[in-house]
Amino acid sequence: MAPALSATQDSTPQDSTNQFLTFACAGRMMAVDIVMVREIRGWAPPTPLPASAPGAMGVLNIRGRVVPIFDLAALIGQPEAAPEAGVILILSRDDADLGLRVDSVSDIVFAKPEAIRPIPHAAMGTGTHLVRGMLEKDDALIALLDIAAVRSPEDAERVYLD
Questions:
Q1: pLDDT at 154 over 60
Q2: Domain named CheW-like: which ranges (predicted)?
């Protein structure tokens, strides 16, 4: 596993600096824009649903809202982790929540927009449609998750409405 990055390495936000929550999933360091993070939860088994979408683990009731939970490892083409392992990131997009099972949460990092690099076309493969770029931080590249590509609110609703 890649070494955890420390928020203190560049912890003074500057104008036009974004914050990202970094986490590990299937041996990869990834990040998501912190404004999309609603909460970080310890493992709780979701209620499985029949005929769920690939990577869908089921749903959880979180403060009266039914939230679909996905195994991020499965979505990026990696073997699913042990169900009881890891944490669940609850993310919010366009007033719809979704949960992602990841291995662990690392740090909050600060980065300017120019620190986000495009993915080289030659590196495209299974799961790269879920990555909007590579976040360059202290000689490391961290895959920046594209929440919109994980599931649109309509697709997330279909997991438990169909």
A1: no
A2: 17-156
